[in-house]
Amino acid sequence: MNRKELVTAIAEELEADKKSTDEFLSVFIDVVTNTVASGEPITITGFAKFARVERAARMGRNPGTGEVIKIAASRKVRITPLKAFKDAVLASKRGGVS
Fold first, then answer.
1. What CATH number does the domain containing 76 carry?
2. Three-state secondary structure along 51-81?
3. Which helix (H) or strand (E) holds 6?
4. CA-CA distance, 69 to 77, in Å (whole number)?
5. Does residue 98 fall inside a structural domain?
6. How many domains does the chain divide into?
7. Is residue 98 over pLDDT 70?
8. Which of 10, 39, 60, 88 could form a disulfide with 71 if both were Cys (CB 3.0 to 4.6 A apart)?
9. Positive or negative, the Cα torsion across 50, 51, 52, 53?
10. Does the residue 27 lie in any domain?
11. How far is residue 30's CA from residue 35's CA, in Å, rounded to a whole number?
């Protein structure tokens, strides 16, 4: 499902127009992005947790040569699906909830 299809599905579910639904989705994405970029995590209960994580510098190994190398500190984005979401998705794969 792409963005256009998502907007259409949400608009139909809410019986709202596509333009305001698309505006809402844009603002939602902006707020989540800006909040997580500032270092504050967002948890949407029953769906997912969005967070920025700091990875410390560490020693690693080049798998091709076995040479020990230093891996620089970095920032990563982590999106973690929460239990209710995982349960719903996995139940539908087993023929449970549709």
1. 4.10.520.10
2. EEEEECCEEEECCCCCCEEEECCEEEEEEEE
3. helix 3-14
4. 23
5. no
6. 1
7. no
8. 60
9. negative
10. yes
11. 8
Q: For residue 24, what are the CA distances in angstroms to 11, 42, 70, 72, 97?
A: 11, 17, 44, 38, 28
Q: Is 23 left (phi over 0), alpha (psi -120 to 50) or beta?
A: alpha
The structure tokens 């579910």 sit at: 13
Q: Give percent of the chain with pLDDT exceeding 90.
A: 90
Distance CA 33, CA 25 (A): 12
Q: Is residue 68 part of a domain?
A: yes
Is the CA virtual torsion 24, 12, 44, 51 positive or negative? negative
Q: Which domain holds residue 15?
A: 3-93
Cα distance between residue 71 and residue 51, in whole Å: 22
Q: Do the domain assignments include residue 48? A: yes
